[in-house]
């Protein structure tokens, strides 16, 4: 194992070295770095050209410049860009902006994509499966920049306009209800009668829901309130218990339900703390939640202690998330007023010079993150859905799954314990690759939404024929790709004992 | 090669009054492909886009049936709004007609249908060049390193590793910035020259497993030359993988080219491509949304139809495939 890692590291180092040379030469050859100055008509033209040539060492041949860059990089100096700004500072800012943008999007895409993929595999050849497959193909074929501009127009500008008078017109409610019914119907298996009933139920639920949201003008001043938090928490308790332990055991179910009730009550009890907390306090609350839930699961779980702890912790975190969401939504009206009624933003990472309490600041980031995240999620969601569907189908047809069924295990145990865990193995590799990819930033997304992240640094450097920022960008992304590839290999061997690293 | 059903004797199928048709591998694949409804729809859609774009404004000096050019400016008619109408009169629309400028006009009065068609042509050409070049190079590298192994493989695969470490958009952007102005043919070839590594890896895997098969051993025992084994014995067995991967490369190349042109690093004005059109008119979303809609619709149509064709081909070439999906 250690020999494998060491060998891989050495090879990767040389691979990376060769790649830096190729990128450096290609960037340096891609255009004329003095182009803008040549069209300059100011009297200092000659001086400016001389300055920049000096800074970029344009008098030296490209391979020599590369060696000089390499030497300085090895000593930890990334150099300056053509305007004399320090690359290390630019890189640090760009990296933090990019991570902010892509981390949430990737995690969300993985979670939703894997769930949708698995459900569509378990319901193979159902209406839901066909719809998801088709939607995934459409997402594969969408040009990201086009979607991004569309989102800006319809999800930001038009949505903000609509928020001034958030009433959903009745034809739209009918359409949404129809959609809800179709989703319910497509997810149900069985004969036509059962599916029709499911369709009717879905139609009624979504119709009533959207009518209430529209009549109460919920979108103008949203929030969940204690009853809804409690209801969602209890539902999640039942769901997580059904997944981890099965509903036939009382212990885990009671533990999870208790966690949901306690969590919902905390939203009132902790009011003084939650009015304007800090991230440190929120982190403390998360740890406290986990500790309390582990205790509950341990105490009430009985024989299914392990499963109970898992279900309880998940329920606790979910309920906590609901409380957090509720607080954010409550701050929405005041935030919206403070940005002149345009909460969904299309440019940049935050409103310039904006001040507010904890919730308002978070809403501000969320409003800026929403659109670029949606664009990113839309694309990688399709990949995750397809991969997890394929890998789950592969696993469900394995002999050991048939054995598990044959020995009379409940379907839950077969799916969750025997199939799901093994189905996740190929997806971990995909995740590792994806994380490596996203650190490179979403070049296109950043361009459209005006984020000054890694992608922006790269395109700007390329446009200016300035190798220094391009190389800094590549050092980070290249290293990330190499490291994450190796993590993927090691994880794969760890998760699947049939694979040996050598 | 294998037959789908063999009448092994007079008392099996024929005796029960059934006609059993022997099918070749090719026939089976074709049958499976044409039963894949989405793939068939994709094929028809893609054929339509190709015929429309190349026949309407003509190609390489051959005139087309559309009378307006993508270069000449004209007087703006009705603020350049599209005149295409598909809602018949009895439904309250203005009837099914093309009108003078079906896709509208841009801000200086150029017919936007002609412009979109020109962009579509260019994008298709780039995509196919990329796929052809990348497939050829990737197949050669993969085949040689997979068959010869040893030092050849080590060198070629390390080179592949180097290329794969560089994110596709990054190297394509550097290449596009350098060669974008030299026209679509040069751009397509050079993008193809940088995105072959994934194809090489795929093919190497196939060759590694096929070279150990008995038929290759037999060929080697007969003294067949390495070249002949690679091209005559192993390569035909990887045709499925190659075709599927090449098809998906076309779809990805359409998106890659449009993304590059959107970033201003691909096809340069005055020449045009679908991505370049969107880049040019991205601020026109509010005032002239059609300038933004049409190229986007054509990019999606091309990429979606090719993706479906690729999916159909993958199912058709997969011997484990028993059920044909819709």
From TrEMBL, chain A:
Q: Where in the cell is it found?
A: Cell membrane
| Keyword Membrane listed | yes
Provide the primary localization. Answer: membrane
List the lineage, top down. Bacteria, Bacillati, Actinomycetota, Actinomycetes, Streptosporangiales
Query: What does the entry give for GO biological process?
Result: transmembrane transport
In the bilayer, the protein is annotated as: Multi-pass membrane protein
Q: Which family does it belong to?
A: Belongs to the binding-protein-dependent transport system permease family.
Keyword set, alphabetical order: Cell membrane, Membrane, Transmembrane, Transmembrane helix, Transport
Annotated organism of origin = Planobispora siamensis
Task: Provide a GO CC annotation, any one.
Answer: plasma membrane
The ABC transmembrane type-1 domain, residue ranges: 95-492
Spans through the membrane: 9-29, 101-122, 134-155, 167-189, 196-220, 226-246, 253-270, 282-301, 308-325, 369-387, 427-451, 471-495
Protein name from the UniProt record: ABC transmembrane type-1 domain-containing protein
InterPro entries attached to this UniProt entry:
MetI-like, MetI-like_sf
Q: What's a Pfam family this protein contains?
A: BPD_transp_1
UniProtKB/TrEMBL annotation, chain B:
> Would I find Transmembrane helix among this entry's keywords?
yes
Location in the cell: Cell membrane
Instruction: Provide the alphabetized UniProt keywords.
Output: Cell membrane, Membrane, Transmembrane, Transmembrane helix, Transport
Q: Where are the transmembrane segments?
A: 38-62, 124-148, 155-175, 181-203, 234-255, 291-310
Name any Gene Ontology BP term: transmembrane transport
| Highest taxon in the source lineage | Bacteria
Membrane topology designation: Multi-pass membrane protein
Q: Which PROSITE patterns does the record cross-reference, listed alphabetically?
A: ABC_TM1 (PS50928)
Residues annotated as domain ABC transmembrane type-1: 120-310
The record's family statement is: Belongs to the binding-protein-dependent transport system permease family.
Its Gene Ontology cellular component terms are:
plasma membrane
Give the matching CDD domains: TM_PBP2 (cd06261)
Q: What is this protein called?
A: ABC transporter permease
């Amino acid at each position: 194992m250690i020999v494998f890692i060491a060998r891989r590291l050495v090879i990767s180092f040389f691979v990376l070295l060769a790649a830096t040379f190729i990128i450096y030469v290609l960037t340096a050859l891609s255009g004329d770095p003095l182009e803008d100055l040549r069209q300059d008509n100011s009297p200092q033209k000659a001086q400016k050209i001389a300055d920049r040539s000096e800074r970029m060492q344009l008098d030296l041949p490209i391979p020599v410049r590369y060696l000089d860059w390499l030497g300085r990089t090895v000593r930890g100096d990334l150099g300056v860009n053509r305007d004399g700004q320090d690359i290390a500072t630019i890189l640090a800012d760009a990296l933090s902006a990019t991570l902010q943008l892509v981390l949430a999007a990737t995690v969300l895409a993985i979670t939703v994509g894997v769930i949708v993929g698995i459900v569509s595999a378990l319901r193979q050849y159902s209406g839901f499966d066909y719809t998801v497959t088709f939607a995934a193909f459409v997402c594969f074929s969408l040009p990201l920049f086009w979607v991004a501009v569309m989102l800006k127009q319809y999800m930001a500008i038009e949505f903000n306009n609509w928020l001034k008078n958030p009433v959903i017109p009745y034809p739209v409610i009918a359409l949404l209800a129809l959609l809800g019914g179709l989703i319910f119907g497509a997810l149900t298996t069985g004969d036509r009668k059962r599916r029709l009933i499911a369709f009717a139920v879905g139609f009624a639920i979504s119709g009533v829901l959207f009518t209430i949201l529209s009549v109460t003008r919920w979108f103008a001043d949203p929030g969940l309130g204690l009853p809804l938090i409690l209801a969602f928490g209890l539902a999640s308790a039942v769901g997580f218990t059904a997944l981890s332990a099965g509903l036939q055991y009382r212990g885990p179910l009671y533990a999870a339900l208790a966690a949901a009730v306690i969590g919902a009550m905390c939203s009132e009890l902790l009011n003084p703390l939650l009015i304007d907390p800090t991230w440190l306090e929120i982190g403390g609350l998360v740890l406290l939640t986990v500790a309390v839930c582990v205790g509950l699961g341990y105490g009430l779980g009985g024989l299914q202690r392990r499963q109970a702890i898992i279900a309880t912790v998940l329920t606790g975190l979910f309920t906590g998330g609901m409380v957090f969401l509720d607080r954010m939504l409550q701050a929405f009206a005041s935030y919206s007023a403070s940005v002149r009624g345009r909460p969904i933003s299309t440019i940049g990472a935050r409103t310039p010079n904006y001040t507010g309490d904890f919730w308002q600041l978070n809403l501000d980031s969320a409003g800026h993150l929403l659109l670029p995240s949606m664009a990113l999620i839309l694309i990688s969601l399709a990949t995750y859905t397809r991969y997890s569907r394929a890998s789950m189908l592969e696993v469900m047809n394995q002999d050991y799954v048939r054995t598990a069924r044959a020995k009379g295990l409940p379907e839950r145990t077969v799916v969750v314990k025997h199939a799901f865990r093994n189905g996740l193995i190929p997806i971990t590799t995909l995740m590792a690759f994806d994380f490596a990819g996203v650190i490179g930033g979403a070049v296109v997304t950043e361009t459209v939404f005006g984020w000054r992240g890694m992608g922006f640094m790269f395109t700007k450097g390329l446009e200016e024929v300035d190798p220094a920022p391009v190389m800094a960008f590549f050092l980070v992304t290249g290293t990330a790709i190499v490291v994450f590839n190796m993590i993927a290999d090691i994880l794969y061997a760890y998760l699947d004992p049939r694979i040996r690293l050598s | 090669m294998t037959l789908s059903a063999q009448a092994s004797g007079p008392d099996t199928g024929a005796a029960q009054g059934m006609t059993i048709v022997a099918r070749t591998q090719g026939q089976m694949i074709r049958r499976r492909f044409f039963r894949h409804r989405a793939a068939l729809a994709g094929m028809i859609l893609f054929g339509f886009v190709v015929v429309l774009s190349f026949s309407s404004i003509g190609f390489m000096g051959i005139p087309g049936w559309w009378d307006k050019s993508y270069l000449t400016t004209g007087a703006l008619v009705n603020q350049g709004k599209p005149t295409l109408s598909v809602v018949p009169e009895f439904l309250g629309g203005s009837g099914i007609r093309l009108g003078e400028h079906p896709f509208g006009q841009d801000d200086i009065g150029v017919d936007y249908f002609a412009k979109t068609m020109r962009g579509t042509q260019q994008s298709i050409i780039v995509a196919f060049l990329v796929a052809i070049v990348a497939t050829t190079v990737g197949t050669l590298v993969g085949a040689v390193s997979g068959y010869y192994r040893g030092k050849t493989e080590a060198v070629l695969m390390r080179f592949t590793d180097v290329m794969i470490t560089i994110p596709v958009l990054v190297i394509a952007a550097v290449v596009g910035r350098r060669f974008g102005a030299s026209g679509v043919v040069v751009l397509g070839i050079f993008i193809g020259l940088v995105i072959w590594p994934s194809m090489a890896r795929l093919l190497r895997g196939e060759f590694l497993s096929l070279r150990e098969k008995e038929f290759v051993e037999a060929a080697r025992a007969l003294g067949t030359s390495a070249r002949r084994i690679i091209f005559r014995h192993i390569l035909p067995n990887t045709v499925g993988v190659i075709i599927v991967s090449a098809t998906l490369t076309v779809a990805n190349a359409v998106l890659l080219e449009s993304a590059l042109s959107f970033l201003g690093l691909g096809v340069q004005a005055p020449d045009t491509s679908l991505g370049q059109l969107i880049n040019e008119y991205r601020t026109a979303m509010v005032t002239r949304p059609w300038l933004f809609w049409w190229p986007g619709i054509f990019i999606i149509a091309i990429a979606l139809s090719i993706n479906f064709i690729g999916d159909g081909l993958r199912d058709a070439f997969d011997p484990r495939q028993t059920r044909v999906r819709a």
